[in-house]
Amino acid sequence: MPVEMSHEVIEQTGGLLGAGLTMDLDHPIVTTYSANPPVTIDVSMTDLSSGLLAHNQLTTIDQSELSSQLGLSLGGGTILPPVQSPEDHLSPTPSPTSSLHDEDMEDFRRITAPKNVVVEQTKKQKASKKRKKKDPNEPQKPLSAYALFFRDTQAAIKGQNPNATFGEVSRIVASMWDSLGEEQKQVYKRKTEAAKKEYLKALALYKENQMSQVVVETMDLDPSHDTPALLPESPVLSPTVATAASMPQSASSPPTTIANQAPTPPPAPTPPPPQVVSPTPSIAKIIISKQMLQAGQIPTSISMSQGMVTVIPATVVTSRGLPLHQLQPGPQTRVTRSVQAAMQMLPRLQPPPLQQMQQPPRLQQMAPAQQPSITILQPPPPLQSMQKVRLSVQPPPLQIKIIPPPLQPQPQTVQVQAQTIPIISLPTSPEVPASPEHLEVLTEVVQEESSPPQMDVQLVGVSPPHSPSPQPRCVRSGCENTPVESKDWDNEYCSNECVVKHCRDTFMAWVAARNQGTLASVK
DNA sequence: ATATTGATTGTTCGA
DNA sequence: TCGAACAATCAATAT
Predict the structure, then answer these.
(1) Mean pLDDT, to the nearest integer, of A5-28?
(2) pLDDT digits 0-9 by tens, A36-51
(3) pTM for the predicted model, two decimal places
(4) Strand B nearby residues, CB < 7 A
(5) In angstroms, rounded to a whole number, what is the distance separating the alpha carbons of residues A423 and A419?
């Protein structure tokens, strides 16, 4: 505490608030002055209090006496010889009770009693006063120079005179303010000016935010639809949505809307909105990552329309900085779920023409698909091209096709290529029914696949690589029969049985070789 | 009208 | 109904 210094200041300058205040107030203490009042303020108040209040051992001061003494000391002409040294004042701080003598108590009552009456009177008068409701987020107006000064000095006054009432402190502060030199006042005024600039900035930003509010809604198009949420507990969705919600929107850019806009679709401008919304009441869940929003890219989107589930991942990097496909539970689980949901719709739907499967509509034009197909665009791992797995499942014959993806990992522009490689062709047979369970297994295997697509094709591939023999034989290993021609296979098999066996063996071998125990659940 | 601080009073709500 | 928590009010003064 700067008690000694205050004494020195007064002794040397002969004034109360002269050099001391100037010296310390010139210090830039903008950020701390409110919490820690300027040292010199404390000094001055200490001496002021000691000189004025403690001199008479008053906790309540006679107004005229106070004024005269304040005027005397603050006027700067006379030095008040402190009866008590500042140190004495500080060390055992005079407790309110101990400092109160009987006479003081009388003075206290004499002064405070009428005050209470006044309070009661003004209470009724100002009962119906200001009714202001403010937005808590609205920036606070900068304090006036006097308010800053009051805040700084009142603590010192209170410290020296704990029993001083608010009115007394206010009068003391006002006297000090009056006696404050213009330079010292300028210090506070500069603070106020600086705070005002900040206030204007904050106010502008606040108003801007008021103008543009982000609308973020995520909901199922059909809540009654018993479909597990595609992206429920995703570690990606929550942060991204929160980011979108908290991200300030500039007035020029439209609010980011993640919503089902079926009731009132907005006038879609030429650039399609970043989300793919299913036209049918099934499910629409949107992910917009922060990176994508900032880059203005089309975000991850999932749409489902009459059995067609489209997963368009965002760029690989997520908010965690991990590739999307590495998250657990990641898109694998979600995709599987959506696939399962789509599977249940399959039996009712008729297989589409092959041409349609090979040339699906553009992603932004995912009009109601006529075939029960599932298009899954998985995010490419780094240095890997995007893998596009297209499962076209239909009642007999069942087909699963893997389409090698284009090399450019640009989900928003990628189109499904017409080139397809038939891998497994399973005609309906009693031995291998195309049950949903089986489909699910196949699907999950494909979903969990994250290795380069080439390997998939190679492993899953049905046709033997080569070995052109002069006498054609059935493709199934161990079968020596001559293949027969059928509409279900291309002159490779001798019978339906061989087709089934061959496919089963191939698939099981692929599963075993592929997973090596990592997918023990797949049988 | 509003700000300073802190005591007091009034209101609301849960136990 | 009671107590806790919160809100409103008031003081003197300056802006």
Answers:
(1) 35
(2) 333 333 333 333 333 3
(3) 0.30
(4) A 130, 132, 140-141, 143-144, 147, 150-151, 154-155, 158, 166, 170
(5) 13
